[in-house]
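cron nightly-structures :: item 1 of 1
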Amino acid sequence: MQYDITERKRAEERIEELAFFDSLTHLPNRTLLRDHLKQAMTAGQRSKTFGALLFVDLDHFKTLNDTRGHHQGDLLLQAVAQRLTASVRESDTVARIGGDEFVVITGNLHGTMEEAVAQTKLVGAKILAALNQPYRLDDVDQHSTASIGATLFWGLETSSDDLLRQADLAMYKAKAAGRNALHFFDPAMQAVVFEHAVLEAGLRQAIRENRLVLHYQAQVAADGRVRGSEVLLRWQHPERGLLAPGEFIPLAEATHLIVPLGYWVLETACLQLAAWASRAEMAPLTVAVNVSAQQFRERDFVDRVLAILTRTGADPKRLSLELTESLLVEHAEDSIEKMLALKARGVGFSLDDFGTGYSSLSCLKRLPLNQLKIDQSFVRDILSDPTDAEIARIVVALARSRALEVIAEGVETQAQRDYLEDSGCYLYQGNFFSQPLPPEGFEAYVQRGSHDRPASFPAFLPPGEKGVS
């Protein structure tokens, strides 16, 4: 009988633990956090003091999970839990509410807002410093940082849900400011969040209802022949008209919609590539598709690209994937493995935004690239800024040394085009030749023949198209 009572008691304790504590870190979970937060708010109302809620989110945690495995990720979460607990007072609460998200509640702060803010900043700084130290995970050193959003509470004036929402918003502000930082909630954030929510809902609907369209900007050789095109996404918004990528891609990245969006772009471009294969003047042309960091880091990226090529019947040799310099340098080994797998099937690779601040030449030498792209930020002032001109020449020289093709984007004038040719660059993209065009406009442009002079844009632009890239 005594044995049965003991076992039942252990079972009850286990059930309680599962109900109120995180099984991995043994910290309070979201349910217990709400209870502790209500207690802190009630205590603050009695003592007439402020309290603070800090929302802590690890930076680039998904990358660690994807590249090193979930076991390493779990070890990091356990270490973070220990450091957070050691960074605050025993009376404070540290909870894990899911994934790489933690919440700290610190109560009994000063009775004035200014002093309470200062105290919260000190707590946040201590947490950031603790989490910024190297971690030893399975005999491997790992570095990690965190972004923190903070909000103050005074008694029961604000609901616990609203406090969590405020701190979450502030945390994303810290992410946007460069990560590894603390940011306080500002009421003005609510309006921005509402606008983003409306835009996000519209974007999800646009994907479902096929309101996205692809335009193609010509890539022209020095002899005037069109060699290919770059795909540029547009959103046909029901109220705002045709939106350029800069108006919705940042939101797509923040909400992870960039991944399904990226595969939609790739499949649609491959369908167009397959359709053009039956037309003599279009068949030799390549199509370049930008790939986001989030999409490229997906574990099944290679398999999904190959499946799209098989499904659409597009020729892999006519497809070029544009990757950013920072992505490839940050995750070199994984990048090389994926690139080699696709290159073995004929897919080409172009390095986009080269020279904009991340260069690692030793890493670059190992990447199986086909092309380097001179960023438009250098082309823009190439005639007036000696530094930009020198960078363009260096990119050309580097491409030559590795037997890579080089293309300049953002070419707007005849003088820029001529300077680039004199510098050894013989492939160009920009509004000097053609704005981004819908498929039928691009087809008509190609049929015109030689393109060593600007296109007559209006002939190919449908009503409402502004041609912005």
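cron nightly-structures :: done
Residues 453-469 have pLDDT under 50 and may be disordered.
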